[in-house]
Write a structure and sequence with these properties.
Blueprint (H helix, E strand, L loop, with lengths): L7 E5 L2 E10 L3 H9 L1 H5 L4 E3 L6 E5 L9 E10 L3 E8 L5 E12 L2 E9 L6 H19 L9 H5 L4 H7 L2
Antiparallel strand pairs: 1-2, 2-8, 3-4, 4-5, 5-6, 6-7, 7-8
Helix pairs in contact: 3-5
Length: 170
């Protein structure tokens, strides 16, 4: 993978967001499965458990290792296979709500995934931007049949992309 950042800054109804895109030569339903089915999601970022019909599931980013905490993912809108909007309740020194949006669009057999995350509160965009570049590149590697472990966080993403994202949101 490349250490060239791809994110951009936008304003959405939930505030300033970092937006990243990836494209896949695949039907939208298959890419949707990669980002919503626990077994497929776990291959590149994490997994969830619970009943999505309740409006809330437990999400854990397993790509961060066994010590990664579970977080509450509150589903705000789900329109398979096109849109998932959620808030992630992140606990630490303070509790924060991060807004996530995953939108998928297919044209001529190519599906574009657009991911957006809010940047309000104590979020460090210098960490979040490179983090989502890394995870989405792991998704690309997984879908291409490559070993996601070849996507190298410390070489290609952090701290290589931190300056770009700091400048983007300054």
């Amino acid at each position: 993978m490349s250490s060239t950042p791809t994110g951009r800054r936008e304003t959405r109804d939930f505030g300033e967001v970092v937006v990243l895109e990836r494209t896949f030569r695949a039907p939208v339903e298959d890419v949707w499965a990669s980002v919503t089915e626990p077994e497929r999601l776990e291959r590149w970022v994490g997994t969830w458990s619970g009943d999505p019909a309740s409006g809330e599931v437990v999400f854990r980013m397993t790509a961060e290792g066994e010590e990664a905490p579970e977080e509450s993912l509150i589903i705000q809108e789900c329109r398979p296979p096109r849109l998932l909007r959620a808030q992630v309740r992140v606990t630490g020194d303070t509790t924060q709500l991060w807004h996530w949006e995953v939108a998928l669009a297919e044209q001529d057999g190519v599906t574009t995934l657009t991911f957006a995350q809010s940047t309000a509160g104590d979020i460090s965009v210098a960490d979040v931007g490179p983090g989502w570049e890394y995870y989405l590149d792991r998704l690309v590697a997984d879908r291409d049949g490559a070993d996601v472990a070849t996507v190298d966080w410390s070489r290609d993403y952090y701290p290589a992309m931190c300056g770009y994202y700091s400048d983007l949101f300054s």
